[in-house]
Amino acid sequence: MEVAVLDIKGKETGRKVNLSDDVFAIEPNNHAVYLDVKQYLANQRQGTHKSKERAEIAGSTRKIKKQKGTGTARAGSIKNPLFVGGGRIFGPRPRSYSQKLNKNLKRLARKSALSIKAKEQSILVVEDFNLEAPRTKDFTNILKALGLESKKSLFVLGDSNNNVYLSSRNLKSSEVVTNSELSTYKILNANNIVLLEGSLEGIESNLSK
């Protein structure tokens, strides 16, 4: 599929690029997309939750009342989970939530996500640009020119560019990544995908394997 190349002022440069049908025009595999997004979100969890169990509570270990004759249930310690301030029964412990997926499935999921965005005509191709210094205002002007000021956008660079990255960091609605950092979740989470010309070769070579 052919897409017009825009400049940072939102005007067509007169050039067009051909996006590979093997990456941007496949039949989306929804289950692969689901698994990849599920893995991404699971891997974001720190898993540092912890509550104190009976053995970890600070408190006396003496028997708080005699075994028989009170008319109530026997109790051996104030740290009993049934008492206020006692330990928690089967409380959460630190653990890893990370999941693993094979490379072919992740590659299929990313191609499916890009194909969905291409079908929705939510992909823009912009010629490579650089900013002289990290300035949020400069990046905001680019968003205005492309008509993305009020939309969630994902900019995909060919190589890391510190000035562009720092200029977008304060904007909640925009994110800048390189083609190697592209994920299914980030693609679907954005309303529009802005591909810089320099990123196309890397995206297609990574996903056409």
Automatic annotation (TrEMBL):
Region (Disordered), start-end ranges: 45-74
Stretches that traverse the bilayer: none
Domain of life: Bacteria
A GO BP annotation: translation
Matching InterPro entries: Ribosomal_uL4, Ribosomal_uL4-like, Ribosomal_uL4_dom_sf
GO CC annotations, alphabetized: ribonucleoprotein complex; ribosome
GO MF annotations in UniProt: rRNA binding; structural constituent of ribosome
Pfam families: Ribosomal_L4
Keywords, sorted A to Z: Ribonucleoprotein, Ribosomal protein, RNA-binding, rRNA-binding
Family (UniProt): Belongs to the universal ribosomal protein uL4 family.
Function: One of the primary rRNA binding proteins, this protein initially binds near the 5'-end of the 23S rRNA. It is important during the early stages of 50S assembly. It makes multiple contacts with different domains of the 23S rRNA in the assembled 50S subunit and ribosome.
PANTHER family xrefs: 50S RIBOSOMAL PROTEIN L4, LARGE RIBOSOMAL SUBUNIT PROTEIN UL4M
Assembly and binders: Part of the 50S ribosomal subunit.
Identification of the protein by name: Large ribosomal subunit protein uL4
Gene from which the chain derives: rplD
